[in-house]
Amino acid sequence: MHFSKLILAMVALTWASTTDALLPFAAPALIVGGLAVLKGAAIVALLAGPLGIGKRSVDDVLAREQSEAALLSTVENLDPSGCILKLVCHLQFKEESARTPEENTLVQMFSGKTEALTSHSAAFVFAAELGSKNKDASVCEKYFNKCPYTNEVVGNLLQQSWGCSNPSA
C-alpha cells in the first residue's frame, strides 16, 4: 500500500515538472527523487558486488545491467535539467578529504567507468570525466547550464536524500 502511494507521488511530481508554472516548486523534489534513485543504485551495486568477481550466470549479469539501466533512466527523467550531472562534475575536483561520505560514494559510482559504459551511464561517466580532466567549475557550469541551482544547493539535496543528518547543521 505504501509503495503505491510512492508511485502515485512520483507520477504527480513528474507531471508537475512538465507544467512550466509549477517547475520551480517541483524541480527540487524531482532532483531529490533522482538522488534517492541513485542511492538505490549504489546500494544494489554494493550488495551485488563487482561484476567481474566470482561466478555469475549470464542471467545475473543481464539482470544487474537491466536494473542499472532502469535506475539511471529514471534519474535522467527526474532530473531533465542535469543538476545531478553538474554535481557529479563538480565533485571530481573537490578534495576527497573535503567530501562527505555520500559525495565520495557518488564519485566512486561513475569515476573511471569508461570501460563499462552503457547508453544509460554515458551521461554520468561523461560528467565525471569532464570534471576530472578539467578541474574547473566553469567547465561544469558551461556543460550543465540548464540546472538553475548552485552546486551547494544540489549538494544539500544530496545530503538530505542520502544522509541521516541535517545538512545545514
How many separate helices?
A: 8
Please give the share of residues in helix.
Answer: 55-70%
Distance between the termini: 34 Å
Number of domains: 1
Characterize the overall form: globular
The overall average pLDDT, rounded, is 78
Description:
- Helix content is 67%, strand content 0%.
- It has helices at 2-17, 23-48, 58-78, 83-91, 101-110, 122-134, 137-143, 151-162.
- It has one domain (2-162).
- With 169 residues, the chain is mainly α.
Topology:
Blueprint: H1 2-17, H2 23-48, H3 58-78, H4 83-91, H5 101-110, H6 122-134, H7 137-143, H8 151-162
Helix pairs in contact: 1-2, 2-3, 2-8, 4-6, 4-7
Notable traits:
globular, mainly alpha, disordered N terminus
How would you briefly describe this protein structure?
The protein has helices at residues 2-17, 23-48, 58-78, 83-91, 101-110, 122-134, 137-143, 151-162.
